[in-house]
Design a protein that fits this description.
heterodimer; A: mainly alpha; 9 helices; B: Cytochrome C Oxidase, Chain A; 17 helices; transmembrane helix (chain A); membrane (chain A); transmembrane (chain A)
Chain lengths: 186, 561
């Protein structure tokens, strides 16, 4: 468990190193589809440490996993807004908020909640993000104007396709869950 | 009466399980292998013409030009010989390790065979009519006759049919054998067919959406960069699938032939999974000098391509562990004494062993080509030709030859006689010597700047070009030796298929090492496929969007021949 925490912390620090951060933020799709998820993953890895340190807190506030997953959805939805990406690049305070919110307010609660959720809730969350990602994909591909001041339209289109492919990946997973019964094979 | 029939049927199934060969499945594999080796014969003869042309000894007549021969040589050997062999070999592996093919899978196999054959015939006719002298990469803006591309479509449809058949077979077996591990050879087959399906999707998009409308005249221009990128997502993966096929024999068959055991079952599966996930994205290193791809993307792809080196190094380690273990158990002493205990006189071991050895310089050369600056030195020179004669011509082809000496007797109900084995050993030495000679000459001439894909010319007796001539003569000599090798191999295949003495031959599958327990997580193909999609998306989304959105006006068709 400590190992996971160390890996998560190391990843978090690595992502925060200025040259790494500025490289990842220089390409729109890497910013949104690599840096942000990796921050969440850093949080996922660090979560057991916090769960162990503050067991009462998680038990009291995240008993059935719903508050945690709601917090996760809110934080992720916030970072899906084009404006927030722009602000992260131009305002230091928002950039700091990004590095705090994604690991600690999205990654940690996700890990704490996921095991507590029922299969239905898990699939509901994935379906929700599939729909959102499809919407985001079409928005970024077909919108005729620049949505972020900091990124060109061409980058916006690439990000749109990345959203669509991620959604396709999730659809493949949902179909797999719906039609393949693992107990038939395992 | 029905009960008796049912009894007879179950008896037949039991007999098949014990003897290990289902006659109907054997027929399917035999058909695939026959086409494969006929392609080897024809492709080899075309290779001879090319070799002696490049040596400056033969001027090809106007009705059969160098580039036409080159196209036929490439397509017949890289696509038809390897592809048909791979499907035939893995289908017999699936049949043998999973208790016989399901009737519908066999049907899909035959449909696949028919479609691919039909497509191949269309392609070959167009090439022979000099209507498709576009080399095996069929790069636009060179445009062939539309029928050539329709032929390719049928080949791909045939491949898909075989892939789907394999997946159905594996899924069905897993349903009936809950909690059991897919036998290792079928695991390799699953990985290879997943990759085959994944990579042919790219070339299908290229041919159906870009090239066909353009070659039929519905649109005037084509996006050349996009077509090349889609092609290499396929082309690079295809040759790696042939390599994965050879690797399966190194891991599973060779240990049995030398009387040893499998390496580590879990780690072998990890190698397969790693090769499946990371392979398609390697395609970009074929385009390192292409314009229109940013340096950043090319830099990223150096890493993505070199990642494949990791499982390959695992393979190199594993195979020598297996050989050393077997050699020591037979009483080999000292640091290298175990080498003496290996069956050097057995073609089923010798051919794949030399194939493995060849992969060391071949892999090293591949790493050189993948690296940005080094690629700039050798790009489009004879070096590259030398590289793939080591990888495909030695590593893959010699393994396939080694397999043919037991697989063909196995499916034909015949045996490998000592005389045929000896012929096989001779063939192996001829082939190895010829390929080493030829590949060495090609690599060297390439370093001196001799271009690939170019008919013989002295560039007006330019001194640099004349300096290549000794190497070109070596290439010609190698090609002659290889033709002898091809003829012996073809004779051996026909003999083993139709004339060798009847008898039972073993399908050699090595047993596990005692106490080797496989991790069940390796069976989660759903996860591996999702990871494959993610890696492909990471590699291709940014450059492909760039190529489409910032596309140049496009190119009209060009016919340089």
């Amino acid at each position: 468990m400590m190992d996971q925490f160390k890996i998560g912390l190391a990843l978090f620090i690595f992502l925060a190193i200025p040259p790494v951060a500025s490289f990842m933020e220089s390409v729109m799709v890497i910013h949104m589809h690599m840096q942000m998820p990796m921050l969440v993953i850093a949080g996922l890895l660090m979560a057991p440490f916090f769960q162990k340190q503050f067991p009462n807190f998680f038990e009291k506030w995240n008993e059935n996993g719903i508050p945690g997953i709601l917090l996760f959805i809110i934080i992720i939805s916030y970072w899906l807004l084009p404006r927030t990406m722009d602000e992260a690049l131009s305002l230091t305070s928002v950039e700091i908020f990004k590095f705090i919110s994604l690991p600690f307010l999205a990654g940690v609660p996700l890990r704490d909640s996921w095991k507590k959720l029922s299969d239905f809730s898990k699939n509901f969350v994935i379906t929700l993000f599939t729909i959102v990602f499809l919407g985001m994909g079409f928005l970024y591909i077909f919108v005729p104007v620049q949505l972020c001041n900091n990124y060109l339209i061409i980058e916006q289109i690439a990000l749109g396709w990345a959203f669509l492919l991620t959604a396709v990946g999730m659809i493949v997973y949902l179909l797999y869950v719906a039609f393949v019964d693992p107990s038939e094979y395992e | 009466m029905e009960a008796i029939n049912a009894n007879a049927a179950s008896l037949k199934n039991k007999a098949n399980e014990i003897l290990g060969v289902n006659p109907e499945d054997a027929k399917l594999t035999k058909s695939f292998l026959l086409v494969s080796f006929v392609a080897l014969l024809l492709g080899g003869l075309f290779g001879l013409l090319q070799g002696i042309n490049r040596a400056g000894l033969l001027e090809l007549p106007s009705w059969l030009n160098y580039y036409q021969v080159l196209t036929a040589h490439g397509l017949l050997l890289i696509v038809v010989f390897s592809g048909f062999f791979m499907i035939g070999y893995f289908y017999s592996g699936l049949s043998h390790t999973l208790g016989g093919l399901l009737p519908k899978v066999r049907k899909l196999g035959w449909i696949g065979y028919g479609l691919s054959m039909f497509g191949t015939v269309l392609v070959v006719i167009m090439v022979l009519m000099n209507e498709a002298t576009v080399l095996f990469t069929f790069y636009p803006p060179m445009m062939a006759h539309p029928i050539f591309y329709f032929g390719l479509v049928f080949v791909v449809l045939g491949i898909w049919s075989c892939c789907i058949g394999a997946f159905i077979q594996v899924a069905d077996w897993r349903k009936k054998h809950k909690g059991q591990h897919l036998p290792i050879l079928s695991f390799f087959a699953t990985g290879a067919f997943v990759l085959l399906l994944g990579c042919t999707l790219f070339v299908a998009v290229e041919v159906l959406f870009l090239i066909l409308p353009w070659s039929l005249g519905w649109v005037d221009t084509i996006n050349v960069m996009l077509a090349r990128t889609l092609f290499w997502a396929f082309g690079h993966t295809a040759v790696n699938i042939w390599y994965l096929t050879a690797v399966s024999a190194w891991y599973v068959i060779v240990p049995r032939v030398i009387g040893g055991t499998l390496w580590n079952d879990t780690l072998t599966r990890v190698v397969v999974i790693a090769l499946v996930i990371m392979n398609i994205t390697g395609g970009f290193h074929h385009q390192i000098v292409d314009p229109g791809i940013s340096d950043t993307i090319k830099y990223m792809h150096v890493f993505m391509s070199l990642a494949i080196g990791f499982p390959s190094l695992m393979t190199a380690y594993a195979l020598f562990v297996v050989m050393e273990r077997a050699g020591r158990r037979k009483g080999g002493k000292g640091a290298l004494g175990w080498l003496k205990k290996l069956p050097w006189g057995d073609v089923r071991f010798l051919a794949p062993f030399i194939a493995m050895l060849a992969f060391a310089p071949a892999g090293a050369g591949g790493i050189a080509q993948t690296t940005f600056q080094l690629n700039a030195v050798v790009h489009n020179t004879m070096w590259v030709v030398g590289h793939f004669h080591l990888t495909l011509g030695m590593s893959v082809a010699m393994t396939f030859f080694g397999i043919s000496y037991w697989l063909i007797p196995f499916i034909s109900g015949r045996v490998l006689t000592p005389a045929m084995n000896k012929l096989g050993v001779i063939q192996t030495y001829i082939w190895a010597a010829a390929m080493v000679l030829m590949a060495f000459a090609m690599h060297t001439a390439g370093l001196f700047g001799s271009p690939r894909r170019t008919s013989y010319t002295t560039y007006g007796d330019h001194a640099a070009a004349l300096g290549w001539d000794p190497y070109m003569l070596l290439i010609g000599f190698g090609a002659v030796l290889l033709t002898i090798g091809v003829l012996i191999q073809f004779y051996a295949v026909i003999h083993l298929m139709f004339f060798a003495p009847k008898g039972q031959t073993e399908f050699p599958i090595a047993p596990k090492e005692p106490g080797d327990v496989t991790g069940y997580w390796t069976e989660r193909w759903g996860v591996w496929v999702v990871l494959l999609i993610i890696v492909v998306a990471m590699a291709y989304v940014v450059p492909i969007v760039d190529m489409i959105v910032n596309a140049p006006p496009g190119s009209p068709p060009i016919r340089p021949w």
